[in-house]
Each structure stands twice: as structure tokens, then as C-alpha cells.
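Dear colleagues,

As part of the handover before I leave the project, I'm documenting each prediction I ran so the next person doesn't have to rerun anything. This entry is a single chain, and its sequence is reproduced below.
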Amino acid sequence: MPHQPATTEPMRILRFVALTILVTSACSSGATRNVDGLAFEVMPAEMTAQCRATARQVGFPVPCPSWLPRGAHPTVFVGGNCPGRAVWVGRGCDGESASSFASIEWPEGVRVGHLVIVGAPTESSAAAIISSPLPPDQYAAVRVVGSSHVGSSPADVVAVEDSSSTAFGGHLVFVLTVDHHTYAFGVHGTDDHARQLDDALAKDMQLVTG
């Protein structure tokens, strides 16, 4: 029988270890998807927990995305009535504690990477939920530019004037009503890129209960 080189078994072990590291690394890196050149990742478990906690606090289902752009993080508020707030989602502040509110940012080159998500305790018009908590005489100028669906629920696609003082200023917003609650979410920008991001968010947006 031919003599087997002494290095054969160690080499097999090394190849097995290398393959195991490669497979483990691929599985632990997390799933991603590409949306118009922007990488999306599964949202962090911490956000799911905050969505459920907020739903318990406000007493109705809270909109929660399943995927977010890579590098997304909660907006850190430094002024107004929400100083120091830095959570993925929570009860609204600035006089809107009965609503759910999320403000999320991410790096996107020269664009502003910003997503706002609001859930209202009652049915509301697009202008009202987008402008909340402003009074009617200060509502933002909004324009319905299309339609879509979030799950099986129809949604209006609304462009908000950039000069608006609301969190949705300059955003393209999906507005829908489910079981007497109105919801609004949308990213900054009103072009085709913004529409593609909103469509991607709408595809897997969940209404989370407590």
C-alpha cells in the first residue's frame, strides 16, 4: 500500500474548519436586500420589542417595519418637547401621547435618509395626521400623487411640501386607515427613489399588537 503523506489528515481538518468558518460567517452576516441601490437589513429585535410596548401603551396596533436601510438608527431629538428622546418607536410627544411615533435616520450620501412613522388613535385625514399636532390653520400642503397597498389595505401616496414644519416635511407618505386607526409612513424625498423605498417598506410593514 502506498505511503500516505503525514499532512493529509491535518489538511482535511483545516479544509473542514475553513468551510465551517465560511458557512457560519455567511449565516451570521444577516439577510440583506437591495432597493434602488440602498441595502436593507432585517430590523433589530429591539425595535420589535419597542413596537409591542408602544402598542400596549396606546391601546391599538402600531406600524412596525420588517426591514430598514443599513445603518438605520433612531433620531436623537435635541430640542422642542422631546429633548433627549432616542428610541426606535414610542408614544408621541409634543402633545400627541395618544399616538405612536417613530423617527429613523440612516446615511445616504447627499440625500437625507429619514423615515417617519405615525399611528393615530382615530381615523384622520392625510393632512391632519401628517401635520399633527399642528392646528388646522397650520396644516402642511399635501398632494395625493398616487395609490398603493399596505398588505391588503389601500393607501394614498401623498407628497408633502418641503417647507412644512412637520416631521413629514419633504416626504413621500403612504396614508391608510385600518380598523378606525389612520397610519402614515414615508421617507424624505418625493422622487422615484423615495417611492421605491416606500414601496419596499410597505411590502413588509406590520401592525404590531402588545
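Residues 84 and 151 are 34 Å apart (CA to CA). The longest strand covers residues 142-150.

All the best with the project,
I.
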